[in-house]
């Protein structure tokens, strides 16, 4: 990745990440989040993780964020009026985050972290190498993830459906009775 | 590209110490602007005129025929009119997002052109993840449409935007799953790689490679129509219920942008299908001159794409709009399971015949010809029975 | 080539912003978005380190994180919707009871 591109993307992602936290309108927060995620996706591609970068754009930009937007509209959320939450929480939260940032930076920034960079082998980050890894070394984890997705879908449907199980049973009884009455 | 930049630098036009990257950036900028202003945007305009003419002939009307020869300049007149109109931003709209939304939609329309395989040499960037790139950048449309729908602060726009998003996100799944059979057979995601794996003759196309790819091609075409908000899936802008859907509050140039992207997307839909299933630019090797070959390939590719564009106009002129629940039923209860079955079927096929089965290609192609003949005979039969007056002249 | 510390520092900064949002905002949806921000900061660190070490493992982990994030988003949003049905609010401060 070119250094100028890195600084540009870094500025975009940090500013839009701040936008997520600081804006009052949830829709604006969400759109800032999309910008952050796309900037990170471009950074993935610049770092050689091409397939993962595009997957990030498809999965996050195309699917998860749209899900969020749907929920915001379904709940009809407007702009938050006035500050919410305890001021003490905000104060100590900010202090804690500042301390954490200082600590992380102290760990990340010194040059001892720099590893000797040998250059990528041919095909690094391509779909071949990713799936080689995924279906050999991480096969069990992959299968477990697919089960996780299935469970998540079932859980989401069960949580979000409007009628409870007893109502369904009631409806079934009613229709059965009606069918009997008709015959 | 690289040689072009080096020639420019060597010519001394930019001064002695200009950095290479700057010149490269300027060259990319100018070239892409030329491609979009010279190819993509006029294409979208001309397609709008062609579509109105085709649609009119299907409905026994004349269509626009006043501006220029046979109304050919109608698209230019419409464009000039829209550019000259006042650009209104409603008072209660969210101004920033309202203004930004059309640009995002146009962005999702121009980005796929980067990997468009016009011929064996004419491709801007043959990415090794070409088709994945295509899917990723067309996913931006949904953000733009949702933004337009929400920022307009209008019920019609909002309903149109939500319908559009639901539709695009749902149909992305069968569309993506229908791409996988081809990827399984070729083992590459690059557009040129997929085309090179096919031949110029129809029996070597992936459309006829095995029964599963044939079904996948049809699913992909229908899903792509739904993703492009085309009739019979144009619920987001259903005039009779939603005025103009997510574009209701837009006027002037921003309105033009939405519809330019919609018409231009027809080319992209056609190009994806032509690349994956119809052999792309493949043409028999009649000459050793690379220029002649590339021109022939360019023509082949464009004929295939424009045929698919015509089919989608035909569909638009013929079929009524579906209901939203029918749309979702079609996607989730039929297309997604069938697309999964296709994928598994293709995987088994590839496991049995890793190099493909040439006999199957011939049989599938023959079956395709039989289906086409039956179709044409039925059309002729009904045309005779209804005793309609047919005008065979394309111009009036 | 971008030095690794820069990438790691950027990842740390985005992570810190995510934590800040999670602690200071009381709208459940925005808190949720902050979690996504933190996940992506970590993803960036994985990709950067994997790229420098020349292994694909970092990217595989990112792949799994994305899947888990998708599952988490579906279930989380379904929970938010069912909370909203009962309480008509998405402010975390208003949800003080464990049961309703």
Protein model, in words:
The complex is a heterotrimer of chains A (183), B (396) and C (100). Chain A has 183 residues and is mostly helical. Helices cover 74% and strands 0% of the residues of chain A. Chain A folds into two domains: 1-80, Four Helix Bundle (Hemerythrin (Met), subunit A) (Up-down Bundle); 127-183, no CATH class. Chain A is extended and about 80 Å long. Chain B is an all-alpha fold. Chain B has a domain at 86-352. In chain B, 67% of the residues lie in helices and 0% in strands. Chain B has 14 helices and no strands. In chain B, helix 3 packs across helix 11, helix 4 (95-110) runs parallel beside helix 11 (252-277) and helix 7 packs parallel to helix 13 (324-352). The model of chain B has no long low-confidence stretch (mean pLDDT 82). Chain C has one domain (4-94): Helix Hairpins (Orthogonal Bundle), CATH 1.10.287. Helix content of chain C is 78%, strand content 0%. Chain C has three helices and no strands. Chain C has helices at 4-24, 28-53, 57-87. The N and C termini of chain C lie far apart (55 Å). Classes of the chains: A mainly alpha (183), B mainly alpha (396), C mainly alpha (100). Chains A and C meet through helix 1, helix 2, helix 3, helix 4 and helix 5 of A and helix 1, helix 2 and helix 3 of C.
Task: Describe the SSE topology.
The complex is a heterotrimer of chains A (183), B (396) and C (100).
Chain A: H1 3-22, H2 26-46, H3 50-74, H4 87-108, H5 127-134, H6 139-160, H7 165-182
Chain B: H1 2-10, H2 20-58, H3 74-84, H4 95-110, H5 130-138, H6 140-151, H7 155-186, H8 191-196, H9 211-227, H10 239-242, H11 252-277, H12 290-318, H13 324-352, H14 358-385
Chain C: H1 4-24, H2 28-53, H3 57-87
Notable features of this structure?
heterotrimer; A: 183 residues; mainly alpha; Four Helix Bundle (Hemerythrin (Met), subunit A); 2 domains; 74% helix; C: 100 residues; Helix Hairpins; 3 helices
Structure at a glance:
The complex is a heterotrimer of chains A (183), B (396) and C (100). By secondary structure, chain B is mainly α. Chain B has 14 helices and no strands.
Low-confidence stretches of chain B: none
- CATH class call of chain C: Mainly Alpha
- Cα-atom Rg of chain B, whole angstroms? 23 Å
Report strand % of chain C: under 5%
Rounded radius of gyration of chain C (Å): 17 Å
Distance between the termini of chain C: 55 Å
CATH fold name of chain C: Helix Hairpins
| Uncertain stretches of 5 or more adjacent residues of chain C | none
Task: Give the tally of β-strands of chain C.
Answer: 0
Q: Summarize model confidence as the mean pLDDT of chain B.
A: 82
Strand content of chain B: under 5%
Number of domains of chain C: 1
The greatest interface here is: A-C, 85 and 73 residues
Class from helix and strand fractions of chain B? mainly alpha
Q: Helix count of chain C?
A: 3
The chain-level mean pLDDT of chain C equals 84
Q: What is the string of SSEs of chain C from the N terminus onward?
A: HHH
**Helical element count of chain B?**
14
Please tell me what the overall shape of chain C is: elongated
Kindly report the oligomeric state of this protein: heterotrimer
Structural class of chain C: mainly alpha
């Amino acid at each position: 990745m070119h250094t100028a591109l890195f600084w540009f993307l870094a500025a975009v992602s940090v500013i839009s990440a701040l936008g997520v936290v600081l804006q009052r309108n949830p829709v604006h927060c969400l759109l800032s989040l999309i910008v952050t995620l796309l900037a990170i996706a471009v950074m993935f591609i610049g770092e050689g993780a091409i397939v993962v970068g595009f997957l990030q754009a498809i999965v996050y930009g195309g699917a998860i964020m749209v899900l969020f937007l749907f929920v915001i509209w379904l709940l009809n959320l407007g702009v938050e009026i006035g500050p919410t939450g305890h001021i003490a929480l905000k104060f100590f939260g900010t202090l804690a985050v500042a301390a954490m940032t200082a600590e992380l930076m102290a760990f990340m920034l010194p040059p001892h972290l720099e590893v000797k960079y040998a250059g990528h082998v041919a095909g690094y980050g391509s779909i071949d190498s990713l799936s080689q890894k995924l279906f050999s070394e991480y096969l069990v984890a992959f299968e477990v993830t697919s089960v996780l997705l299935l469970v998540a879908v079932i859980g989401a449907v069960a949580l979000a459906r409007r009628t409870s199980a007893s109502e369904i049973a009631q409806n079934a009884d009613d229709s059965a009775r009606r069918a009997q009455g008709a015959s | 590209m690289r040689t072009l930049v080096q020639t420019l630098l060597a010519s001394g036009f930019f001064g002695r110490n200009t950095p290479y990257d700057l010149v490269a950036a300027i060259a990319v900028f100018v070239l892409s602007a030329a491609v979009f202003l010279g190819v993509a945007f006029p294409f979208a305009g001309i397609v709008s005129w062609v579509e109105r003419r085709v649609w009119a002939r299907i409905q026994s009307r004349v269509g626009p025929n006043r501006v220029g020869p046979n109304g050919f300049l109608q698209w230019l007149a419409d464009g000039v009119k829209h550019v000259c109109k006042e650009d209104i931003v409603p008072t209660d709209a969210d101004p920033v997002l309202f203004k930004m939304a059309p640009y995002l939609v146009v962005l999702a329309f121009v980005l796929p052109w980067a990997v468009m395989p016009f011929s064996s040499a004419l491709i801007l960037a043959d990415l090794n993840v070409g088709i994945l790139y295509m899917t990723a950048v067309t996913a931006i449309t949904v953000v733009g449409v949702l933004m337009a729908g929400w920022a307009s602060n209008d019920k019609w726009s909002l309903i149109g935007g939500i319908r559009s998003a639901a539709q695009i996100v749902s149909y992305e799944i069968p569309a993506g799953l229908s791409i996988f059979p081809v990827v399984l057979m070729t083992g590459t995601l690059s557009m040129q790689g997929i085309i090179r794996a096919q031949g110029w003759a129809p029996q070597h196309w992936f459309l006829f490679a095995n029964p599963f790819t044939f079904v996948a091609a049809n699913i992909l075409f229908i899903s792509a129509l739904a993703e492009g908000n085309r009739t019979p899936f144009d619920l987001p802008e259903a005039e009779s219920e939603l005025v103009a859907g997510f574009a209701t509050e837009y006027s002037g140039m921003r309105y033009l942008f939405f519809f330019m992207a919609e018409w231009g997307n027809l080319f992209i839909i056609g190009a994806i299908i032509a690349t994956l299933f119809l052999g792309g630019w493949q043409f028999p090797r009649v000459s050793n001159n690379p220029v002649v070959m590339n021109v022939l390939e360019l023509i082949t590719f464009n004929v295939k794409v424009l045929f698919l564009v015509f089919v989608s106009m035909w569909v638009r002129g013929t079929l009524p709009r579906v209901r939203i629940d029918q749309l979702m039923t079609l996607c989730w209860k039929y297309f997604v399971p069938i697309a999964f079955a296709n994928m598994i079927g293709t995987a088994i096929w590839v496991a049995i015949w890793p190099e493909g089965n040439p006999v199957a290609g011939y049989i599938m192609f023959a079956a395709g010809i039989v289906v086409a003949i039956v179709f044409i005979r039925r059309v002729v039969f009904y045309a005779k029975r209804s005793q309609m007056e047919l005008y065979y002249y394309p111009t009036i | 080539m971008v030095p690794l510390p820069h990438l790691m520092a950027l990842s740390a900064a985005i992570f810190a912003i995510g934590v800040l949002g999670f602690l200071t905002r009381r709208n459940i949806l925005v808190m949720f978005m902050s979690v996504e921000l933190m996940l992506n900061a970590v993803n960036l660190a994985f990709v950067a380190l994997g790229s420098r070490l020349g292994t694909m493992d970092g990217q595989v982990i990112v792949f799994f994180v994305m899947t888990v994030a998708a599952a988490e988003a579906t279930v989380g949003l379904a929970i938010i919707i069912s909370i909203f049905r009962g309480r008509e609010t998405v402010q975390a401060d208003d949800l003080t009871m464990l049961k309703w």
